[in-house]
Design goal:
Elements (H helix, E strand, L loop, with lengths): L32 H14 L22 H23 L4 E7 L3 H16 L3 E7 L5 H12 L6 E4 L9 H7 L11 H8 L11 H12 L15
Parallel strand pairs: 1-2, 1-3
Length: 231
Amino acid sequence: GRICDPSVAAPSAEPRSDKGAMLPAAPAPAAPAAQAQQVAPVAVAQAPAAQTPAEKPPRATVETKLIDGKAIAADVRAELKEMSDQLEKDYGVRPGLAVILVGQRKDSQSYVRNKKRAAAEANFHTVDVDLPETVSQEDLLKEVQALNDDPKVHAILVQLPLPKHIDEAEVLKAIRVDKDADGFSALNIGNLCLRGGDPPMAVPCTPAGCIELLQRSGVAVAGKNAVVIGR
């Protein structure tokens, strides 16, 4: 009956002496060493691992070579002058270049001036045909035909672009294949693309100039990757 009666206090759990005096409580037993060692690994395992930056691969070194285009161009013009002088001496013929300029575009005028200057340095015979912006396609084609028939003209160059009312393809097609200075005719382009067969009578000047620069600089291009910047 005493166990179920809440009014009766439960026996004290505090230790007492045989005379009834209360003794001081014993200190709580220390955790076993093995249990203490199990806590630290758990805390370490939960912490994120420190990220070490990936090592960058060593940067490859690239050997570069500066090509002096102006110096090489001067050499080419000097060589052409020697051949032109020899041709005139042996056969009384000077290479003839005709340039047709339509309109007043500043960039086209500057380009034509540079061509004429280079032709003069090489002792070429030059013919200038300057036409107004409003020239008709029919009149322009007549000028082209007149140059086709001129025996002193061996190459014809029509400066592009032409005014919008003129069909550029028709004008370029009217130039004789053997006088196609830019190499734009269908026959010259076709022969350029073929492997073997007849070589083109003329090739586009910009890629031809790039190849000339590389060859004269001793650069081997076979198997190389080419990067064109700025186009």
